[in-house]
Amino acid sequence: MFAGLFGSNKSASAVVTREDTESRTDSALDSLERGFESDLDEVTLIESPREDGSCASIIFRNGGPVDAVALELLCDKVGWPRRPVNKVQIALKNSFLISTLWLRRTGPGQDAKDEMIALARATSDHAFNATIWDVLVDPEYQSQGLGKALVENMVRTLLRKDIANITLFADANVVTFYQNLGFEADPDGIKGMFWYPKF
Known about the structure:
Blueprint: H1 18-35, E1 42-49, E2 55-62, H2 68-78, H3 85-93, E3 97-106, E4 113-124, E5 129-137, H4 146-160, E6 165-168, H5 175-179
Parallel strand pairs: 5-6
Antiparallel strand pairs: 1-2, 2-3, 3-4, 4-5
Helix pairs in contact: 2-3
């Protein structure tokens, strides 16, 4: 699942076998589960040291600052339409929970460089209800279980905060993805209703 984790560099030290990938995936998700039992803010999911002394890691964060411009650049990568940056900043500020994944690259004698590669956020009334928004993963890192890890952690975190009515909006092409995570479309005949200005 994490075979493409650190980009398309195919140098010998970056090659990951299928068996190694599967064990890393299990280990990473176990690490995520253990790390957030105590609501830690940051967990290293995977580290990949290289022979030259450099290292690439995937870091999971709950909370922390998210730059609106960086989020919109990530939205560009997944093909979402541009939104006004000032409104994105307001949305981030008013979110109840923001979870992110970061690719951290380090090298001998160099400062760590972090790049946001995935995000999910939730809004809430802080008591009963929460809605998950903006679940996105950089296309270079999709199909590796990262989106699943983000959503599962967000649901667990909301449940720990005693918020049990969790909703989201999904494009038709990702409904199955969310159903596999336990979400239901139209449970008990409940329908989502929308109001849009007509002009």
